[in-house]
Specification:
By secondary structure, the protein is α/β, with parallel strands linked by helices. Helix content is 43%, strand content 12%. It folds into two domains: 7-18 and 82-131, HAD superfamily/HAD-like (Rossmann fold); 20-80.
Length: 146
């Protein structure tokens, strides 16, 4: 360990896991397949990284409760599109060997699926998960960085 630093916390999406392809497919499916809204790359980019509820608030505000379970189903069907970034496993192992406590902090509702993805690669065993009780927005540390 270095100095007083005892723990390192990671974000899940975009830090440990590459969920870009899954997010894009979920947004495309919601807009195009479910709502009939043309979903070109610029439209998809507008909603990229937003929690499902926030997207629904913008595109289908009167159908949020109806469509959340539909989106969860799409998430399950597309979970294979999410992968662990290259180099994460050796990095996590090195930090654990150095004595750091390691954790994941996320507000994503699909945390269980993500943890399963990490567990299958023996990464999760070194990490504790901290999930916010309620989804929060903006979810980035610096609003507007998208």
């Amino acid at each position: 360990m270095t100095g007083n630093l005892q723990a390192i916390l990671f974000d899940l999406d975009g830090t440990l896991l590459d969920s870009c392809a899954q997010d894009e497919e979920q947004i495309r499916s919601l807009l195009s397949d479910i709502l009939g809204i043309p979903a070109n790359p610029d439209v998809i980019a507008r909603y990229y990284g937003m929690p499902s509820r926030k997207i629904l608030e913008e595109v289908a505000p009167t159908r949020i409760e109806e469509l959340l379970p539909v989106l969860e189903d799409v998430q399950r069907k597309t979970e294979d599109l999410t992968t662990v970034f290259s180099g994460i496993k050796p990095t996590v192992e090195k930090l654990a060997r150095a004595g750091f406590s390691l954790g994941v902090v996320t507000s994503k509702t699909r945390t269980e699926m993500m943890i399963s993805r990490m567990s299958s690669q023996n990464i999760f065993v070194k990490l504790k998960v901290f999930s916010t009780l309620k989804p929060c927005w903006p979810s980035e540390p610096i609003p507007g960085m998208r």
